[in-house]
Amino acid sequence: xxxxxxxxxxxxxxxxxxxxxxxxxxxxxxxxxxxxxxxxxxxxxxxxxxxxxxxxxxxxxxxxxxxxxxxxxxxxxxxxxxxxxxxxxxxxxxxxxxxxxxxxxxxxxxxxxxxxxxxxxxxxxxxxxxxxxxxxxxxxxxxxxxxxxxxxxxxxxxxxxxxxxxxxxxxxxxxxxxxxxxxxxxxxxxxxxxxxxxxxxxxxxxxxxxxxxxxxxxxxxxxxxxxxxxxxxxxxxxxxxxxxxxxxxxxxxxxxxxxxxxxxxxxxxxxxxxxxxxxxxxxxxxxxx
Length: 289
Known about the structure:
By secondary structure, the protein is mainly α. Helices cover about 75% and strands about 0% of the residues. It is built from twelve helices and no strands. It has helices spanning about 10-30, 35-45, 55-75, 80-90, 95-110, 115-125, 125-130, 135-145, 150-160, 165-230, 235-250, 260-280. The longest helix has about 70 residues, at about 165-230. The protein starts with 11 loop residues before the first helix and ends in an 11-residue tail after the last helix. The model has no long low-confidence stretch (mean pLDDT about 80).
């Protein structure tokens, strides 16, 4: 975990500028994103959290911009917001350029809800309303955060309460909000219609599968019933006699003894007769009129 940033010192601004140049070279020329991120963190830590002169604030903002790009290149975009808030602590203190990059990044990865509260806090701050970038950031927040999330009422309220826009600009933004609301409603209706059409199709498929399963179960029940009726007609006494004779031949008698040969021959003959009687085809008696 990173240590807390130190208090700002005048001599640290020059060192941070050198780290910014190294980070930019590593990012653009060498494409060593991890090393570029390390230089950005070292530069921001050297500047600390104090107010400092305007030049150090610009260097810190540039370091954060390069750091955001390095995190995005390493597919670590989920860490971007927490990373910049580590150095600025609250959303209201974010520089406009950093906030713009965060909004565009999370909009590109289709996670605009991440910037919902952060952007709202920044836009409500009275100090930020006097910045020249306020109008463009409000428009960016509307188009890339509120409208994609379907927050149309909040978007209309924000436009009507904004003093930066004149009446013509407000009407243009309200018209854009109305158009996006209609598109949203049409998509929802199409989605609902598709789901309603999908439900009968699913029920039809399930009904066909149920019918096939019922037919299969009926055939299986008939086969089992036929097999059971066949086994009921077998002469069990003869089958038991054949089993007993086989037991005498294999277990109880000594085939090597000369006195056992005539008896074994008779048992084999009886066993053949019993086998033929057991497994002979079943003949049902003719039906009398």
